[in-house]
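ok new one. same drill as before - C-alpha cells go in, u give me an amino acid for every spot. 445 of them this time. try not to just spam alanines like last time pls lmao
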C-alpha cells in the first residue's frame, strides 16, 4: 500500500554511558518500558498513530560478534506487528555495548553493519529504519562536550566519533538493503543554527554553522567546503575515508529526518562560549536551509516541550510545530511526517543524561503511569482532524510502504523479492529518473 502523511511518536531508548564508561543510562529502564511495553503499544494505538520510532536496546541485544539475545525484540516486534503499527527501527541510539567500548573504536562501523543485517534477516517485514540516531548530537556529546561514552573534549575525538558514526550508518544501510531492497531510511538528525552575538563572534558562528552539516554531508555524499575538509583532515580523517563517503549512492533510499527543540538554536560569543538562544528562526526556516542543501524529502522526526505549570505550554508548542510543518509543506518542500517524541515522559533529560538523578521530565504524550497528558489529547485530535485533509490536498509524495497489517511475512529473502517484483516496487525509494542526485519523486510514487 501507499502512505501519505506519517504521524508518529517514539519510545525513548537512549543508552549512553557516563562516569568514564562505568555507568549506563538506560531510558527504557528508567521510563518503565521493559515492564509496560504492552501498555505502551496500546497507548500508541489509542492516539491513532500508525508509525512508531522504536528499536531494541543494543547493549542488551548485541552480546558480541554474531551473538545476540533476541528475546525482548522478538516479543515486542511481534506485538507491534500484531497491532498493525509500522516501526521506524532505531538500531543505535547514543551508545554501544560494553564489549565495543565507545565511538572511538574503529571496528564499530563494520561490526554494526553485521548487526543491522542480522536484525533485518530476523525481522524481514520491517521496512523503515534509522540505523544511527542523531549522529551529530552523539558525536558532539560523546566526542566534544565530554558528556557521554568516551567523554572526549577535543576536535580529534569529535571527528573520530563523527566519522565512525556516519560510516556505521552508511554500512548499515548497505547491509539492510541486501536483505530488504525496498528499505527506506529516515535519518533522524538534529537541525541546528548558531547565531553570532556580536561582530567578533561571526567567524566562530559561521564555523559552527558549517560543522552542523558534517554528518549529513558525509551520509549523503555531499562535498564539504575547503574549510571543513581541512578541519576533517587536520583531525584524523584520511582522503580514503572522505572519498568513501563521496562514493555513497544511497540518497535514493533516504528521507531526511529533522529534529527541532527549543534548545536547537544557539548564541555564540566572541570568547568562544555557546549558550542556548531559544527559538529565533524556528523549524520552518532551519528545515528550509537543510532542504536547500540536500534536496531530499523531509520528516519532522522529533520535538517536545516541558508541560509547564499551566499544562498548556506543551500544547502551544505542538500547535506551533504543526504550523511550521504546514508552512514547510506550503512552500513546496515535500514533508512526509511529524513526530512528538516521546510517547511517555523521559527521565534525566534535564541534564542531557549526564547525571543519573531520577528526575522525571514531563515531556511525553503520557506520564509514566501511562495516563494521557493534555498534549497527548491534543495530538490525538490533531491526527484525527488532519489525517483525512492532508491526502486530499497532497501535492507531493506518498510512500510505497508494506504496512504490517497488509500481508503475512515473506518466508525467506527469495519470497520477499518475488513479492517486490509482483508489486513493481524494485525501485521503491528511487528519487526520480536522475538517480542518486535527483530531487524528483520516487519512481511509481
Amino acid at each position: 500500500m501507499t502512505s501519505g502523511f506519517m504521524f508518529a511518536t517514539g519510545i525513548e531508548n537512549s543508552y549512553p554511558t557516563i562516569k568514564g564508561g562505568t555507568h549506563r543510562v538506560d531510558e527504557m529502564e528508567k521510563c518503565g518500558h521493559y515492564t509496560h511495553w504492552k501498555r505502551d503499544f496500546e497507548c500508541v494505538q489509542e492516539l491513532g498513530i500508525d508509525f512508531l520510532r522504536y528499536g531494541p536496546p543494543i547493549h542488551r541485544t548485541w552480546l558480541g560478534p554474531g551473538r545476540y539475545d533476541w528475546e525482548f525484540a522478538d516479543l515486542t516486534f511481534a506485538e507491534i506487528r500484531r497491532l498493525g503499527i509500522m516501526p521506524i527501527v532505531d538500531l543505535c541510539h547514543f551508545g554501544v555495548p560494553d564489549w565495543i567500548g565507545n565511538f572511538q573504536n574503529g571496528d564499530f562501523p563494520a561490526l554494526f553493519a553485521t548487526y543491522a543485517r542480522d536484525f533485518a534477516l530476523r525481522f524481514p517485514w520491517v521496512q523503515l529504519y534509522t540505523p544511527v540516531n542523531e549522529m551529530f548530537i552523539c558525536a558532539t556529546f560523546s566526542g566534544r562536550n565530554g558528556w557521554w561514552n568516551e567523554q572526549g573534549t577535543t576536535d580529534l575525538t569529535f571527528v573520530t566519533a563523527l566519522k565512525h558514526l556516519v560510516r556505521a550508518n552508511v554500512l548499515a544501510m548497505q547491509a539492510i538493503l541486501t536483505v530488504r531492497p525496498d528499505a527506506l531510511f529516515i535519518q533522524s538528525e538534529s537541525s541546528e543554527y548558531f547565531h553570532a552575538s556580536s561582530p567578533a563572534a561571526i567567524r566562530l558562528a559561521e564555523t559552527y554553522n558549517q560543522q552542523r552539516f558534517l554528518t549529513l554531508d558525509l551520509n549523503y555524499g555531499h562535498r564539504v567546503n575547503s574549510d571543513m575538509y581541512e578541519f576533517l583532515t587536520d583531525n584524523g580523517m584520511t582522503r580514503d575515508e572522505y572519498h568513501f563517503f563521496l562514493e555513497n549512492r544511497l540518497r535514493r533510499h533516504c528521507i531526511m529526518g529533522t529534529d527541532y527543540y527549543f534548545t536547537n538554536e544557539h548564541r555564540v560569543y566572541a570568547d568562544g562560549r555557546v549558550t542556548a538562544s531559544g527559538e529565533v528562526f524556528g523549524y520552518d526556516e532551519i528545515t528550509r536551509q537543510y532542504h536547500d542543501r540536500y534536496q531530499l524529502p523531509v520528516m519532522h522526526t522529533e520535538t517536545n516541550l516541558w508541560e509547564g505549570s499551566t499544562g498548556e505550554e506543551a500544547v502551544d508548542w505542538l500547535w506551533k510545530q504543526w504550523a511550521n510543518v504546514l508552512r514547510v509543506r506550503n512552500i513546496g518542500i515535500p514533508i512526509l511526517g511529524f513526530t512528538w517524541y516521546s510517547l511517555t515522559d523521559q527521565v534525566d533529560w534535564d541534564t542531557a543524561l549526564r547525571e543519573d538523578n531520577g528526575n522525571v521530565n514531563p515531556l511525553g504524550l503520557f506520564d509514566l503511569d501511562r495516563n494521557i497528558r493534555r498534549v497527548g489529547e491534543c495530538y490525538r485530535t490533531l491526527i484525527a482532524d488532519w489525517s483525512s485533509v492532508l491526502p486530499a490536498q497532497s501535492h507531493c509524495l506518498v510512500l510505497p510502504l508494506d504496512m504490517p497489517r497488509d500481508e503475512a511475512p515473506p518466508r525467506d529473502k527469495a519470497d520477499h523479492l518475488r513479492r517486490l517484483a509482483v508489486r513493481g516496487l524494485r525501485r521503491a525509494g528511487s528519487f526520480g529518473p536522475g538517480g542518486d542526485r535527483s530531487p524528483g519523486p520516487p519512481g511509481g510514487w
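The radius of gyration is 21 Å. and btw The longest strand covers residues 86-92.
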